[in-house]
Design a protein that fits this description.
This protein has a single domain (about 10-180), classed as Gcn5-related N-acetyltransferase (GNAT) (Aminopeptidase), CATH 3.40.630. It contains four helices and eight strands, in the order ββααβββαβαββ. It has helices at about 25-35, 50-65, 115-130, 145-155, and strands at about 10-15, 15-20, 70-75, 85-95, 100-105, 135-140, 155-170, 170-180. It is globular and about 40 Å long. The two termini are about 15 Å apart.
Length: about 180
């Protein structure tokens, strides 16, 4: 059976990036990103009300890692590893089926610089090689063309289009599901 049992948080590196554990010092940046309507345009989740809510969220992230429930990284540039510019991670891990959902977000100042692509490539490799996932899935808002193109670029294939399967802010929204199979299985 699949597990996320690492003795310590697995920090990852790419050519330009450090992918590290969330820390309490990330709270203000994460709050700013999660309340930024440009960042959250296609992320259909309630916005945090205050900094305390984000601090609790970070604690839950880290506890989720400790419990083996999720694995979420802060995206930071190597030249400034303490400054959070985005996040990427695995959620909704389905241990019995060796499947996890990947999600990501990035501050608009860093859009169109290949950062999510670089972080995605590294976390996909980690998911397949270190976690031993069989499938990585992504669930996107159907209007999010940038995310769709990013997933397809990295080999994801559209598996489903669900009609009005998600209720958010008084309306039912459609979802698209993308999947990527482990090429080593």
């Amino acid at each position: 059976m699949l597990t996320l049992n690492f003795t310590k948080f697995p920090a990852l590196e790419t050519e330009r990036l450090i992918l590290r554990e969330h820390s309490p010092s990330d709270a203000e940046t994460l709050f700013a990103m999660r309340t930024n309507e440009t960042v959250m345009k296609y992320i259909d989740r309630e916005r945090p009300k205050d900094l305390l809510e984000i601090e609790t969220f970070i604690t839950a992230f880290n506890r989720g890692f400790e419990n083996g429930d999720n694995l979420a990284w802060v995206i930071a540039l190597k030249e400034n590893p303490d400054k959070m510019i985005g996040s990427i991670g695995y959620w909704r891990t389905d241990y019995g089926n060796h499947r996890a959902e990947i999600g990501y977000m990035l501050h608009p100042d860093y859009w169109r610089k290949g950062i999510i692509s670089e972080a995605l490539k590294r976390t996909i490799a980690f998911g397949f090689e270190e976690i031993n996932l069989h499938t990585i899935k992504a669930n996107i808002n159907i209007e999010n063309d940038a995310s769709r193109k990013m997933l397809i670029k990295h080999g994801f294939v559209k598996e489903a289009h669900f009609k009005q399967d998600y209720y958010f802010r008084g309306q039912f929204l459609d979802s698209e599901i993308y999947g990527l199979l482990n090429p080593n299985h």
